Amino acid sequence: MTPSLNPAAPHNLPIFIAAPGGTDVLMVIMAIFLILAVLAVGLLFLRLHTLPERIAHRSHKLQFEIVAVLGLLALFTHIHAFWVAGLLLALIDLPDFGNPLRRIAGSLEKIAGLKPGEGATETPEELGIPAAPADEAGEGTVEVPRTVTPSRLAKEKVHA
Questions:
Q1: What is the pTM of this model?
Q2: Which end of the chain has fewer surrounding CB within 10 Å, N or C?
C-alpha cells in the first residue's frame, strides 16, 4: 500500500520542509549563521572594548598602562565608568614633567664635572667630606654650599 497525499496538502512543498527521517537543512544553516553572528558580535564588542588601549598605544602615551588597567577593570566589573575614564585618558595628552627635570639634572652634573647619572650617588657627608665651618652670617649674606667634584674629592683625600 502506497501512502497517498492528503487532498488538502499542496503538491509542491517548499525546500525547507524536510522529509521524515531526513536532515533539516534550514536548521543546519541557521545554526551556522547563529554561531557566526555570535562570534562576530563578540569580536566587535572586544574591538570596541579595547579602543582606548589601542588609541593610547598607537600614540605612545605615557599613561598607557593606566588606560590598560582601566579597560580590564571595565571588562571584569562591568562598570562602564572605567571604560569612559580610560577613553578620556587615552585621548588627553599629559605633559611630560620628567624629561625636562632629567635634562636639568644632566646639565647640572655636566657643570659640576660629573659623568651623567653620577650626581645622585652619595652625599658629601657619606663621602667623608667635613662640613665647612659656619661663619657668623650677617644680615644680607648668603651661604653658598661647596661643590663636590671628583677632582676636588681626590685632592682632599690626599691632603687628609
A1: 0.49
A2: N
